[in-house]
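Hi there,

I know you've been waiting on this one. I reran it after we fixed the sequence typo, so this is the corrected version. Both the input and the resulting structure follow.
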Amino acid sequence: MSPRNKSVQRCPAVREVLNRVGDKWSVQIVALLGDGPMRFSELRRSIEGISQRMLTLTLRGLERDGLVTRTVFPEIPPRVDYELTRLGKTLLTPIQGLAEWAEEYRTSIQEAREKFDSSAKKKLSSQQLLKRSSVG
């Protein structure tokens, strides 16, 4: 392990920040808010598979970390908008870079997964055959 990686492991504050900005829901929320403020319901419709509770918890964490602001408008029904802060906007470049990397290498990753899964199935089948032959 390189000295840089060891320092990340030893520093709980860095690990905590990476856990926040690196989880799948935070990444998607930050990317969506990169286009401008959104309402809670818009975010929920835009993020496939996220529950209302998980969206609430993730937004609260992003707000606590100073990455997102929550603005409540005194309307009936109440309107709440979420927006990236200046600090939150600094995440857009790394997230975009990660998205571009994923797009560029997604085919290679899928091929590697298929190769791995195929190999794992062959090993499992061989082990099952050996086990059956040793039992009989």
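Quick highlight: The chain has seven helices and three strands.

Best,
R. S.
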